[in-house]
Design a protein that fits this description.
- The structure is a single chain.
- By secondary structure, the chain is α/β, with parallel strands linked by helices.
- It contains eleven helices and twelve strands.
- The protein has a six-stranded parallel beta sheet, with helices on both faces.
- Helix 5 crosses helix 6.
- The protein is globular.
Length: 375
């Protein structure tokens, strides 16, 4: 029905009727809009309050020059720091090092910010960490992958620094045995970032696992690269060239040890077009860096995240001591990752053999030598 209009000649009654009708409609419209607005306000969810850190305890960390995005030990350390801070409802500070010359200044910056605990990641920071700990006896320190003294003897001279160490030779032994079992060429390779005990411990444990396989099976699988190091912990052409050279020598399984250098090995394998299996170190690289997921045989694991989180929470609770934490197969501080995409490619009996070897290492029936034990 068309709306009524008043025109020249309309009566006063007609005009008043139209005005009253428009007024009523306007009122209804306003009531409708108001109702919608009120309904919208009532339905709006309340914003969750931002959680504010209330614990004044301040844990801090300095990375090695591999950086916190190395998908390896620096990143795992930071994950442990973050997890502890979240659990304690405290803030944290993390400073990344881009060169060796950054170590001492980065540690000092955290001292100046009054950190209660400073964790340094990697043996490269040993000298700077020991010096800072001695100069700041009221601050607690911890260092990942370093014994905090020149010759590891189970004791630390500085009372305020705690080593966080991992007997990865035990886990690498399992990985070496598995690699020898899988190899079709009878040659497996390894190489490291720098010739430090916490790197070479992987390599020698790996070789010992291959040797044990040869003894048990009457085989002669060879290990190449035991004295080969890139000179650093960067994913670069040096690491890629070393991996390519090992592939050319016939290695069909390779364990690079040292932060992101495994990424260079992955690139070398891809470029070669050959069937070569790749192992990770520290973290399960199948999860942390899936770019080369189809190449990953397994990884030699360190429980860096869990150990770091435990040390932080202990310090906050007043339970600090400088006795070294040593991760082993027995305390689940080290281990190997699943075979992932290689599960169907390995000998069906392999996992059972590895389980038996693990039990024998834990019981002491098999002694895996490393700088962390007297074996």
């Amino acid at each position: 029905m068309s709306p009524r209009r008043f025109v020249l000649g309309s009566t006063l009654e007609d005009i008043l009727s139209i005005i009253n009708r428009k007024t009523a409609l306007s009122g209804l419209a306003l009531i409708g809009v108001s109702t919608l607005l009120l309904a919208g306000c009532a339905a709006a969810p309340k914003a969750s309050p931002t959680k504010v850190a209330t614990n004044k305890f301040l844990p801090c960390m300095v990375s090695d020059n591999g950086g916190f995005d190395d998908h390896s030990f620096n990143e795992l350390g930071l994950d442990g720091l973050k997890a502890a801070a979240a659990k304690l409802n405290s803030k944290y500070k993390a400073v990344q090092s881009n060169a060796d010359t950054d170590y001492a200044p980065n540690i000092q910056s955290l001292v100046d910010q009054k950190c209660d605990l400073i964790i340094t990641v990697g043996f490269n920071l040993s000298a700077a960490s020991l010096k800072a700990a001695a100069a700041n006896p009221n601050i607690k320190f911890a260092i990942i992958d370093d014994a905090a003294d020149a010759n590891f003897d189970g004791k630390v001279d500085d009372p305020n620094i705690k080593p966080i160490l991992f007997d990865t030779a035990q886990a690498a032994f399992l990985a070496g045995y598995a690699s020898a079992s899988y190899s079709k060429t009878g040659i497996v390779g390894t190489f490291g970032g720098m010739n430090f005990p916490t790197v070479s411990i992987f390599m020698t444990g790996y070789a010992d696992g291959v040797k044990y396989y040869n003894q048990q099976k009457g085989k002669d699988v060879k290990v190449i690269g035991l004295k080969t190091f890139t000179g650093g912990f960067a994913a670069n052409n040096t690491a890629k060239s070393i991996a390519a050279n090992q592939i050319n020598q016939g290695a069909d399984v390779i364990l690079p040890v040292g932060g992101p250098i495994f990424q260079s090995a992955g690139a070398a394998i891809t470029d070669s077009g050959k069937s070569v299996a790749l192992l990770g170190a520290d973290a399960d690289v199948f999860t942390t860096f899936p770019t080369y997921d189809s190449l990953y045989f397994t990884s030699v694991l360190k429980g860096i995240k869990e150990a770091t989180q435990a040390v932080v929470t202990d310090v906050e609770a007043g339970n600090f001591n400088n006795t070294p934490y040593i991760g082993t197969l027995k305390n689940n501080g080290v281990g190997i990752a699943p075979f992932h995409d290689f599960t169907s490619k390995v000998d069906p009996a392999l996992q059972g053999e590895l389980d038996t070897i693990k039990k024998s290492i834990i019981s002491g029936d098999i002694v895996v030598k490393s700088y962390l034990n007297a074996g």
